[in-house]
Each structure stands twice: as structure tokens, then as C-alpha cells.
Please model this.
Amino acid sequence: MTDLTASQDMMSARHRLDLTSDAAKARVRARYRAEARFRSYGLVALAVTTVFVGILVADILLRGIPAFWQHRLMLDVPIAADAFGEAGKASTEAQIRGGDYYPVTKAALAAAVPGIESRSAERTLNRLLSTGAADVLREQLVANPALIGTTMPKVPLLLSDDADLYFKGHETKVASRAPRGIATPSGTYGQVTVLTASNDFADELIRIKQALALRARQLDTEGARLQRSPEKANQIRGGEMLAEAKALRGRAESPGSEEVLDSNVPSVLVEINGGLVKATKLGNSSISGEVLLPLKSTAEAKPADWKIVSYVTPEANRKVTDQEVAFLERFRSLGAVESAFNWRFFTSGDSREPELAGIRGALVGSALTLLVTLVLCLPIGVAAAIYLEEFAPKNKITDLVEVNINNLAAVPSIVFGLLGLAVFLNFFGMPRSAPLVGGLVLALLVLPTIIIAGRAALRSVPPSIKEAALGVGASHQQAIFHHVLPLAMPGIMTGTIIGMAHALGETAPLLMIGMIAFIVDVPKAFTEAATVMPVQIYLWSDLPEQAFQQKTAAAIVVLLVFLFVMNGLAIWLRKRFERRW
Amino acid sequence: MDAQVATASRPAPTTTAATGYKVMARDCNVYYGAKHALKSVSVDIPDRSVMSFIGPSGCGKSTFLRCINRMNDTIPICRVTGKITIDNQDIYDTSLDVVQLRARVGMVFQKPNPFPKSIYENVAYGPRIHGMAGSKSQLDEIVTASLEKAGLWKEVKDRLNDSGTGLSGGQQQRLCIARAIAVSPEVILMDEPCSALDPIATAKIEELIDELRRNFCIIIVTHSMQQAARVSQRTAFFHLGLLVEEGETSKIFTNPEDKRTQDYITGRFG
Model:
């Protein structure tokens, strides 16, 4: 005893705890600094993550949200009495369903924009409507055949994707300006000249010349670069560019001279006497060009009655032509354009036409696939977890099984796809592209996750609960099923839903079993061909149409909402069933 | 303390039914893997009395307690040899159903461990799985009687549907006792039932143990020698896996025969 005390005294003499020395104070300050530093690292990491997630979400929403709205033409549609059969006789439903609606919509468009004589302009006008524009008409007529022979008021006719994008502001800005002089058109249709009493087109001319000068500079740079290239062909091309630039500069530097407009400069148009003239030649006080929308007369127009319009984006840089813009602007001024929520996106399957394509097929495909996965995974996964955790003898074989389950969770998903292809399709001869097979493959993928999560959840239940149950004479199985499993259920649910969310976003294994096909029909059974949401997104993102890029973003929004709903469900389930002990 | 129940001071090992001993152990050995945790323990425990096991940590007293309801079976590496009988029936006999044995031998654990269910469900669980009640009213009777015997009825009768985990520590432990006695066991094992409780709750549990003594054979493991002295009629002292000394509580605490017992109760080690 005494020895012990003595040695303790000696120790404290040498290693005395001093909290007041400078070194101790410095240590305290260093500790505070270290803690503050660590906190600030955390804050910075959090801020960076938040910014990136914010940018991602904002970008997807900005691109995707417009795709949830669609523009339609609200037109009065006259239906001839003999449109789908003999006049005076009621048309059958098959006749109405199978009828040709092109003449019907054509007539409606012609009524809205009268006086179009050129065939190509007429075709352009008709192409503004989607190929599915008449669907709504068909449905209404099937529901009420009495409408045949009447004029249906304000039928919403779906616009084509390019027209829709134009109204969403993706194609060009339209600027208009009031002139000062009195203008006189030379004709009402075809090639006409418009003369004004003052230099009303001088501003446009200057702008065009500026644009020419800009293009000349770009050609100069590019041409000079190409000329330095060692390849002969490039040198020749560079020389051509320099010559072109010189010509352009010549035009740009002679003020007041007339300019011939092409599709590489902004379009200049004149709206006069109820019609629209597109300038092909531009002078200070006159334009000559072609009529896009026929004029009512060749009467003189006072400054207040006509205006100069320009489509800012050059025609070559946009998908809608001047003629199309002219028609669309006419419809807009008629008040016939209406934007409405794109229900079709949620009610129809895929399509080659962006404005007709919907997510329903992929949503139903995902739901069916996940249902198969859930029905397979949850019972098998939970049973396996309970067996391995509570009943399996601890020996080499169970160790091997355990290691392999953990390894399976790390296997690349495409491997499961190959397995599905080899086993389910080739060996068992199951149907290709079917949600059943997709569900089976995803079940293989999710099973390890559920087993691991399930075992962790079972292990986290305090052993005292099991002991308590055993202590009152419950059997091992009763103790587990009555007490341990209910307490582990929130954890198992969380693991399952995380696994299912993982499965929902999985693409690679489904490609292997053919779920990448272009499938128009919404699947109705587990064995019908289907696709799933991530694959649909992948398919759409690959298509060239700009409208499909929007659809891609919109589909991502839907997928994210689906995921949020699933995760929300997980949180709710956990809160609902969480018990304290 | 209560000498009326206690029998002879150091009973000679015997296996006849006429002795009045409820639980008898002969040459009981327990191995955890290679570790010999309990060495050749033989002890007789009389019915309707309280037997306490004392000894330093790791001496094997809890291990022995868990042999009596075969709770050690749940530990894979644990091996038990020797013979333990309850009412002269070998509990390690292969024909005996371990689940039924545990219904006959109730257990109360160190830390109160009510099920995270309602108070009613906690008590009703055992009777329900053993089919002890034919109807809801019978089950209600059992629950009420058990809670009354555990001295908890007055405190919880208005909130039987509240969670058992919402009670205070002492109440939870009495709920666990009620749960144990609901299946009307013959023996109740208590593994340091008061070590997680404050002195007032401890006093209540001790009172309860004294009450229960009239109907049950109670075996209690405790680290508190005062508690052993207060509640038990007989005491056994374990040390390093050996049963060193066993006898009337008053004798063990006042006049122990073994030097090690004396050292322990006087605080030399442990």
C-alpha cells in the first residue's frame, strides 16, 4: 500500500496536470481552432453540395417543366355531313373511328387563314398541326355522332412539336416597329414590292449590314486559320472563305445600297393591309419580296396601319420557317392559341412524334416490374435474413453463404442482366422485354440489399427482448416472429425501399433482356412488352428533336417525383412503426 | 432471516422426493467453449422460500441461474453437464420440452425489459401463447391478478393500453415480474433484479419478493449482500465457478465456515 502511494506521489510530481501555464492555454486554443476548422469544413462541404444539387434540380426543372404544357389551336371545325359516310345516314362508330380526318382539319385551317393559294404554303399550314391533332375530334365525334354535319366550336387541335416550341419561345424573337411614311404595296399575292414615303427601312438595312460585317470577320478568322493548315483542301477552303468575307465586307461597307437577304441574316417582314410580305431585297425606302399571308388590297397604308416586323434569329438557325412563323403569329393574333396542361404525357405511351409521346407506358412498365421485384424480394429476403441471423448454425457453409451474399451486393448490375438473358430468356424461354423478366432480374439485384439490411435490422433489436420472450416460455420462432421481427420491421422496410428505389433507377440489366425496345402500347400484363422509366429517359435523350430533350427532362422530373414518393413512404413507414424500448 | 421456512443448515446431498426441495442440482458443470465457467455445483433449493446467490463478478452465479431454465441453450458455445431436477424431473432430459420448462420457470432479468407493447399485452402474452385463457374475460382476470400480485395494479389500472416502456424503471421491473408470474410458474429466477433501480424502487421489489415467497420458489442473484440478507432465507456463495458455501442466510452472514466467504462478506475482495 505504502509503496503504491509513494510511486503515485512521484508520478504526480513529475507529470503534474497544469491548467494555467501558457502551454496549456495554447493547447486549449489549438483545440478550439481544430474544432472550428472541422466545423467549417463540414459547412463548406454542405454548401458546395447544396449548390450543386440546387443547380441540378433547377436545370432539370427549367428544362422539364415546359414539357408539361402544350400549345393547341382552338379552331372552329366544320364537319361535313358526308365526312365519314353517306350524307343523311348516321355514321357507325367504326366509320367515325376509321375516318380520314386530314380533310377535316385542313378545312378548319383554311377557314382560319383564308386566301392561301400556293400549294407549298398550304402544306406548311397543315404541317403545323400534329399528326395526332384529330384524336380529340375523333373522341368527341364517337361520343356524340350528332355533331356530324355541324361546326364544332373551339376544338383544341394539338400543334406539332416545332410549332409548340415556337410558342414556348425557343425559336426566335419577333420584333416590330412602327414606320413613319405612307406605304404602297404593288400586289396582294406572289412577288410584290412595298414602297414607303420615307427611309423607313434604313434601320433594318444598317442592322443587316452590321450582321454582314460580323459574319465577314468570322469568315476572316476561320479562313486565315484554314489557310495555315498543311492540307491542300483546307487551304483552298480557307481561300474561298477569305474571298467570301471580302465580298461581304464590301456589301457591309457601302451604306444605303440595296441588300439581297438570305436565310443567314435576320428576316425582315412588312405587315400591311391584313397581309404579310417577307423581304428578299431591302433598300432604304423599299422592299421587294414574297407574300406570306395574302394582302386584302393594294391601297396605300398610313404609318399607323402598317408595321415592320423582324424575326431576330436567322431562318437558317431555327427549325420553323418564316412562313410557319407567319402562320403561327397569325393564329396568335386571332387568339386561337392556347396553352394547356399536357395530360397526354401521362396518358399515352411512347411515340415518334414528340408532342404525342407520353410516359404512361414506362410508368406502368416500371410499376409492374417493381411489383414483381417486391413480391419476390420481400418474403425471400426477410426469410433469408431471419434464417441466417437467428436459425442458421454458425459453420463454414453459412460463412460462405454470408460472404457470397455480401459479394453479390457489389456485383455490377449488367452482370445480372447477362444472367437474366442466359437463364430466364434463353433457358426458360420467358418472353423478351417483359416486366416479369425485368422484375426477376431486378429481384436478383435487390435481394442482397434486403438481406443485408434485414440482418442489420434484426441484429439491432436488443437481445433482452428475445430473452424476455423466451423467459415466459415462447419458443425461439415465437420470440422472433412475435417480438423481434416487428421491431426490426422499420429497418427492413427502409432497406427494402432503398433497394426498390435502386431498382427503379436501374437501366443496364434491363437493356440485356430487351426492355430497351420502342414500345407504343401501355403494357397491361406482366408478360407484355414494356419499357421502364430510366430506359425511356435514355431512349428519349438519344433522339435529335429538341422537343424530346424537353421530354427527357420532364421524364426525369417524373422519375424523381416517383423516387421522392417512395422515399417519403419509407420515412412514413419508419415513423409509423418505430417503437422505443 | 426467516428461519421458519429454512430447513437444515447444510443439507446433505439427497435425491429423494421427501426432502421438500424444489430444485436440486448435482455436479453441474458449464463450459463456454474451452472455459470451465461452473465447476461441479451441487445445491438443493427448497420450495416457497427465497434463495440468494452471491459472489464477485464472473463467479458463475448468473450462469448457474440460467441453467435452471436452460437459458444457456441459446448460447451456441455453451455446454452443460451434470443433473438439475425440478420436482425430481431432470430438466436436461431429452424428452422434456424446453419451452414448457421455461413456462414453469419464470425469469426476471437485470435490466427491465418489457415488450414495447401495451402493459396489458406484456402480461397477457405468456398466458396467450400457452392457451391458459379460454376467453377474453379469463385473460383479463389473469392480467389483473398478475398485476395485483406484482403490486402494480393500483398504479396502472387506468392505463393498461399505454406502452409498457413508458413506465418508470421500478414499475417496468414489477411489470416484468407480473409478466413472469402470469404463466403461474413454479420457480422464479431473478438475475440482479434491482441493480438498475433506485433505493425506493428496490425496496418495493424486495417487499414484493417477500410476498411472492408464499407461493413460489424464488432464486435471486444479487451483488448487494444487504439485499441477500434482507430477502433470502438461504444464501449460496460462489467464487471462481465453485459453490463455496451454502446455508441459512443468517449463518452465512454471521458465522461463515469458509475463509473465502468471510473475506467476501467483510469486503476483502469482490
User: Anything to note?
Assistant: Chain A has a mean pLDDT of 88.
